[in-house]
Amino acid sequence: MKTINIGLLGFGTVGCGMTKILLQSPGVIESRLGATLALKWIADLDLEGDRGVPVDESILTTDAGEVINDPEVDIVVELIGGYEPAKRFILKAIENGKHVVTANKALLAAHGDEIFSAASQKGVEVGFEASVGGGIPLIRSIKEGLVANRISGLFGILNGTANYILTKMTDEGRPFSGVLKEAQALGYAEADPTFDVEGIDAAHKLTILLAIAYGVPIDFEAVYTEGISKITPLDIKFMKEFGYRIKLLAISKDDGQAIEARVHATLIPEDAMLANVNEAYNALYIKGDAVGSVMLYGPGAGMMPTGSAVVSDLVDVGRNILKGAVGRVPALGHQPAGVEGRRIKSIDELETEYYFRFSAEDRPGVLSKVSGILGKHQISIKSVHQQGRDLLGAVPIVMITHEAKEASVQASLSEIDQLDVVKDKTVLIRIEDWR
Amino acid sequence: MKTINIGLLGFGTVGCGMTKILLQSPGVIESRLGATLALKWIADLDLEGDRGVPVDESILTTDAGEVINDPEVDIVVELIGGYEPAKRFILKAIENGKHVVTANKALLAAHGDEIFSAASQKGVEVGFEASVGGGIPLIRSIKEGLVANRISGLFGILNGTANYILTKMTDEGRPFSGVLKEAQALGYAEADPTFDVEGIDAAHKLTILLAIAYGVPIDFEAVYTEGISKITPLDIKFMKEFGYRIKLLAISKDDGQAIEARVHATLIPEDAMLANVNEAYNALYIKGDAVGSVMLYGPGAGMMPTGSAVVSDLVDVGRNILKGAVGRVPALGHQPAGVEGRRIKSIDELETEYYFRFSAEDRPGVLSKVSGILGKHQISIKSVHQQGRDLLGAVPIVMITHEAKEASVQASLSEIDQLDVVKDKTVLIRIEDWR
Lengths: 435, 435
What we know:
By secondary structure, chain A is α/β, with parallel strands linked by helices. Chain A folds into 3 domains: 2-135 and 303-338, 3-Layer(aba) Sandwich (Rossmann fold); 138-299, 2-Layer Sandwich (Dihydrodipicolinate Reductase, domain 2); 348-431, ACT domain (Alpha-Beta Plaits), CATH 3.30.70.260. Helices cover 36% and strands 27% of the residues of chain A. Chains A and B meet through helix 1, helix 2, helix 6, strand 12 and helix 12 of A and helix 1, helix 2, helix 6, strand 12 and helix 12 of B. Strand 12 (292-299) of chain A pairs antiparallel with strand 12 of chain B, so a sheet runs across the interface.
């Protein structure tokens, strides 16, 4: 049986997952691939400590160069994460004619074009199924399974940490900060949770999906990004009463002219499939002109699920090596000539429904002032809900609008927030119903 | 740009969907495939009537032989359905060195081994993504995306008609027969609904999935099959009170020794993701040793969704033709040497929880007699619910058991049904909670 040699850079959580699968299931992989995936090298700066994966010491090294420059290595797996030295190692591996498999969404969202173009010139593959949606085979599904479709929309829960926090806040009525601390203690959130809770990680992933779905260049800066750190239990209570659930949603839509691309806390109908995606699970809801709607659901992170996605790429690249079919599917799913230069819309162009919570003084005429300003900006109200005063004498007025323009919404809220009867910055949460 | 010639057999619903996609989206497909998919022939015995798809009359023929024997045709698409002449045409196309794409689950479940073996000997591809789950790319996901996993379980809602009927019965409390008639009027169910409502279509699909997931030979007869025609509104009312929803579920489990394979009406917890799969939608919940759990959801039938799956196979085969990589992935996902001869269990070996509804006379001691027989057969009761008498004086006693053996359950129910205080055959519905 033929052997395909793998060199691993980065022996962290996902690296251990990949290694475990290769060690535990060689028969499973061989019976499907018809060849052996042999782990020839594992490189990591820190090789101390027992990772619970019994590997032969002779394959361990602290020198990435030994892996990248070994002529016998067919595929280099980059699981270091971050920008450098990951980028340098990947480009060097490509230069050396190695195929690359990576889970590094931050790197691909920032420097994907450079990496994919280097790989294409050198005639090697770059697999990155593990970079979005952990173990869910969603990149492959868009590039191959839904290849017959013009994708018109993507709606994704792409960050497990944020989804875990919002799930706990919703189910237990607890504040963001407390749930975050618990998530950190349980290992669901990192010490610096910024990427996860501020939507940056989800925006990295959406950036990659945009390129695959629409054939647009990789452009992280064009994705509007907001997080969940300002969501309060009070807003969650109100939105539940209105029949919504809150999710950190990565959204894109293509109207054939320009593309919406945004990540923010979003209210979705409680009976939507995505509303039932809880805890650290991820899901991607895809709309295509032929298929209608498809949803893929599963673990968006974790040692073994993400390892499963890495190994699926190893098998995929391995199949191309065995058949001499490298480049069979373009890395981003589109032929170079097929990449379209469609514009990404700015958030100001968005038109959607909105949830507002105003903190107003409990005086006659307040609602009239607020709704007057909204009316002036052509924002019409779908439903409104006013409750008794809170401890400080402020009254939360909660409002759902009909579809309105983001630019008008922002203009009217700045006016409203300057009213002397308004005591706090108005809370704005966008609503989405894609069905 | 290169051209790949397609010959279509069967210009029905799915054939029209495939044709529409090829005519409407050539640019989309070319930008991804890097070649043109040209529809060279459409064969159907009946070419009368406007199908709403504007095709050039010169490609229409009533003679399938013209398609199969045309040396310029690269891929023959079989969308006739049924056993003959579909099987004969496919085998002849393979003999002529054509690749084949089909949506014909009944044929593959009965004669798949013969077809795949002929294709393998001839060195041509057989694509069948459209045969299971309509537009959902689930065959590709098991064969490629989850290739690193030992699959331990499959839980599928694989028949849209049955799911539509159960959804309406659940939401509206209506009887099976009335909902079926409505579904037939709306075109959701066929004039002869046997395959859909008796579980046969779902069993065909499960048969195909078993071969892909576990590498076992195709063996439709080994799949235990029961339908939904005996489900009553009364049972649906009771199971809702117990926190369950009812689905026609295709279930398989692999314990490493033997495989469970069964299709029957199944009670599942109301908060399970699959419980929210309603109307004519399909979904497959997959458990793998590395990935954990993944669920794929989408339209399980229909002109355009199934057409989308057919075209995904055309692109897949097209990519292999262009790269000279035919046979890159084995048709059923496993190398010939990798096919394992694992045993399929009989339904008697099943161990699960059960729902029973006894129709008993309203007399003292009835519950004691019934539970005595259950106890004798080692079946222990988890909860029991007895309501006031119905119009005929019979009392429904509803029971949920702990895990019990099917053989013991069947033995005890035959005893119970012979009691003079039991007025009607006891209703048995199996319960499943895979989480």
